[in-house]
Amino acid sequence: MKHRPHSSRLRDALGSLSARLLLAFLLPTLLFLALAGASVYALARASLEDELGASLSALAAATASQVSGERMLTIEPGDDVSGTRTWRNLVRLLDGVRTASGVRRVYAVDAKGRVRTDVGGNLPVGAEVPELARDRLELTRVLAGKRAASQVLFTGSDGLLYKTGYAPVVQDGQVVGAIGVEGSAAFFGPLRRLWRTFVMASGVALVALALIAVLTARGLARPLRRLMDSALRIGRGDLTTPVPPEPTREIGVLARELEVMRGALESRDRQLKLMLAGVAHEVRNPLGGIALFSGLLQEDLRAGAHADAGSHVDRIQREVTYLQRIVEDFLAFAREQPLARSPMEAPDLVSSACELLSMEASARGVTLDVDAAPAHLEADGSLLTAALVNLVKNAVQAAPPGSRVRVRGQPRDGAYAIDVQDSGPGVPESERERIFEPFFTTREQGTGLGLPLARKIVRAHGGELALRSTPGDTVFTLTLPCLPAASGQTPQARR
């Protein structure tokens, strides 16, 4: 089964991100517009329907108040054909209402729902009104003496929507009939046009949002794609090409962190290559010496020259010892050693390091001048002593016979500074930048790991190791954070 490359999968992920962003922009907006539009339309329609029903029923009530129930009931089938006076008077009244109000139809019915007069509907006297079967509930309320309007709109023969308002016709306190007024729901034309306009505006808004979403997705995808390319380059081993900065705040933070990671990997890779090259170089010389003197030893033993064999064995042992020191220094520099911090006094650190080198200093004719002001430290005593021993040892080896190596410790700028000063030839300016690089040394038997290891230990303690050098005056300054002084307490008392 073939696996797709990382770049293809990442590009698919970016494409999926763009699609999700587009969906995240459009789906909520579409749902909101649909719900909001439908809700507004339904509310507007219901409100307008109620208003129309109230107006029609009020008009029906006003008309019913002008109709004599007794006379209306005297109208019989055929009166519309013969045109009796009572029928004509009622037609005249209802037609006046129809003309004045602009409604489509006004009719009067008896309590059984039979037509007594129909203006606009043209049903004959005595006929049943079909709409009353639909509005039975409303008619029941009317016969109980209340006004009512049809609950639903109905479509007329002209294709328009209509609604009917009803009011009772009362004679001597008794409902003897009803007036029905049909009016057109003319407001639905503008309402429908408003709905269409809303739908079109929503469509335009969705298109605009889709465009914004696409542009936003591309704006996010481009820097992410650049970060992806940088990550792929780093994954393939290209640690020299910097990660370009990004203007977007969040992605810019990712870019900066990726650049920091790349720089750390590049530095670590460079140190690893230097260490490997340094180890190969340093190991080659003693191995060559061991091979040479072991060959001479073999020849002397074959020739029976046992007197020289001892000197060859001594040389071999010295070379083996040097090899062991290279391996130990390499391991000490390469591995991460956890710090076992504990309270300690700064003068104890300085004096213990100088005591370890007092014999070597005396053998070289160099005097150690030690002066350390009191201060409280919290450090790994053994590691920090090893770092300071390395500095003092370098100073002793560089100092001319009869001179002094001054070791001074004092509080400085909120920290504790230890200066190791010698009057040797100094460090050339061309070598000062490289003196803390692993395996860089100017000594024939030096591993070049002493100063890098010392700086590593000091930095692990939150301090720094610096160099200031001129011919006749070289100073290594080891700076450490110190604890605030506790009145009346010493490290022993705190323990």
TrEMBL record:
Question: Is Glycosyltransferase there in the keyword field?
Answer: no
Instruction: State the superkingdom.
Output: Bacteria
Keywords, in A-Z order: ATP-binding, Cell membrane, Hydrolase, Kinase, Magnesium, Manganese, Membrane, Nucleotide-binding, Phosphoprotein, Protein phosphatase, Stress response, Transferase, Transmembrane, Transmembrane helix, Two-component regulatory system, Virulence
Give the first-level EC class, as a single word. Answer: transferase
Give a Gene Ontology cellular component term annotated to this protein.
plasma membrane
Every copy of the Histidine kinase domain together lies at: 278-484
Location in the cell reads: Cell membrane
Where exactly are the transmembrane stretches of this chain? 194-217
Q: What is its main location?
A: membrane
Q: Give the EC number(s) under which this enzyme is classified.
A: 2.7.13.3
GO molecular function term, any single one: ATP binding
**Does Magnesium appear among the keywords?**
yes
Q: What is this protein called?
A: Signal transduction histidine-protein kinase/phosphatase MprB
Task: Report the source organism.
Answer: Corallococcus llansteffanensis
